[in-house]
Amino acid sequence: MVMLTFGLLASGSQAGDCGYPPFSFFQAGHGPDGYFVRTVLLPGRGASVGPGPIQGIGDYLASEAGSTVIYFSKRTERDLPASEWRAADPLSCFRKFAAAAGLEVLTPSSDLWLVGTAEDWFRNNAAITLFAEPVDLAKQGVFRNYQVTDVEKALLTQLPVRDGEAQRNGPLMAFGGVIYDSLQNEERDTLLVVGTASAWRSYNSSFTYKVFKVRLDRSGGRIRVGCIWGVSEIPAGRLLPEISEDFDGDGYRDFVFDSQGADNVPNYVVLSGKDGHRLFAFSGDELAVERNAAGPKRVAFRAFDEALMSETQAARGLTGSPLDNAPGVFRYSPESRVFGAEAGAGRKTASEASSGVSAPGVARRLLAKEVGGAEKIRVYLMGEVWWEPQSRSEQVKITLSAKTLTRITSEMVKAGYPAHILYEYKSPGYLVAEEQRQQEIRH
C-alpha cells in the first residue's frame, strides 16, 4: 500500500522533493482495493478538523490518473469529519472527497480536472490554457519526436506549477505551463524546468514562478518526474540559456534568470545548479566572468541597487545582505555559499560610478585587472547595449527576448510558435462574454 500526506510547497529549495511536504490533516494513497483519501484527527480536535488545503490530494490523484488539475478553490468549503473516501480510480475518489468538502470536479476533457465550489461561476466564466515548450528546439533532439509530448505532459501533471487560485468575480482567463531545457552535460534525461500559473482579469495579471531541476525515469512504461531540487516564489521569469557557467566551481552548471525588475531596471538572479540556492544577484549591462578557473570563478558586475534588493528580499523571501550599488569584483565564499566583494579588489565607489550607474565597461576592466589580462575573462553583454566594447575578452551577447512564460494562444501555435498547448478549455459563458467584449471594441 502507498500512503502519502499533503501540504503546500514552501518557499526555498527542497532537495529531492518538488511536491508537497507533510500536512497532518489529510492522507491519500492506494492499495489492492483502489484509492482512498482520509482525514487525520489531531489531539484534542475531536471529529472536525476544519478547512484545509486540497491541492496536495488533487495533484497526487490527478498525477496517478495521468491528468492535470486546475484549482478555482484550493481550500475545503466546510469542516470535514473523521472519515474516509474510497473508489476504484483516482477521479472517482477525488470527486467523493471534493463533494464532502463542498467542491465540484469538472472534466471538460478526460485528462483535465477543474476544481471549484459547487456553483455555476467557474463552470460558466472560465478560459484555461496550459502549455509546454522547450527552451531550445535543437536540444530537444535528446527525445524522439513521439516522446516529446509525453515528457511535457509528465512535467505539467507531476510538478506543482498550476496553483494560481482564481477569485470569484467576473470572467477569468487563466494560463500556465512549463518551459524546459535539457542539461546535456549532466546525466541523461536531466532537465531544468520553469513553471508558472497566472490569472488575468481586466487585463491585470498575477504570476507565480517556480524553478525545478528534475530527472526523468522512463522505467515501468510511464514517465516519472524525479525532483533533484525545487525553488518557489523567486523573482525569475526568463531563463538566459546563453550563460552556461559553473560560477561556484562545484561541477554543476548554474542558471541565470532575468528577474524582470521594477522600474525597467535590468536585474538578474543566479541560482546554484547543484541545489537551487541563490548565489548572487546583479544588475547592469554586463557580467564579467573569470575563464578557466580551477574552482570558483571571480565575477564582476554592478551590484543590485540596495533599496531595490531590500524590497525584493521582503517581497520574495530572499536571504543575504544586499550589496551596495558600486561595480566591483566578487568571489565565492564556501562558508556563506554566496558571492561577496573580494577583499582588496579594485572597486568603484557609488559616486565614482555616476551615482550608482556603471560607466561602460567598468566591471570588465576591474576583473581584467584582478585576473591579469582581458584575454582571461568572458563578458556577457546584457541586451542591446549602446556602446561597442573594444576588448580582447571573449564576448557573448545575450538576447533578452529569450522565452518568457506569457500567454500562449492556439493562433500563435498555428503561426509557428514552438509550443504545445496540452490543455485548452473555454466555457460557453466565457465565449459569449468574449464575443460581446470584441463587439464593443469594434464599435
Distance between the termini: 62 Å
Helix content percent band: 10-25%
Strand content: 25-35%
> What about the largest sheet?
9 strands, mixed
Assign the structural class, choosing from mainly alpha, mainly beta, alpha/beta, alpha+beta, or little secondary structure: alpha+beta
Distinct helical segment count: 8
Number of strands: 23
Rg from Cα: 24 Å
Residue stretches low in confidence (pLDDT < 50, at least 5 long) are: 6-16, 200-204, 305-324, 348-358
Overall geometry comes to globular
The mean pLDDT is 75
Strand-helix topology:
Blueprint: E1 2-5, E2 12-13, E3 26-31, E4 34-39, H1 55-65, E5 68-71, E6 84-87, H2 90-100, E7 103-109, E8 112-117, H3 121-124, E9 126-134, H4 145-158, E10 172-182, E11 190-201, E12 204-217, E13 224-232, E14 238-239, E15 255-258, E16 267-271, E17 278-290, E18 299-303, H5 306-316, E19 327-333, E20 338-341, H6 362-371, E21 377-382, E22 394-398, H7 410-414, E23 420-426, H8 428-442
Parallel strand pairs: 5-8, 9-10, 21-22
Antiparallel strand pairs: 1-3, 2-13, 3-4, 4-6, 7-8, 9-23, 10-11, 11-12, 12-13, 14-15, 15-16, 16-17, 17-18, 17-21, 18-19, 19-20
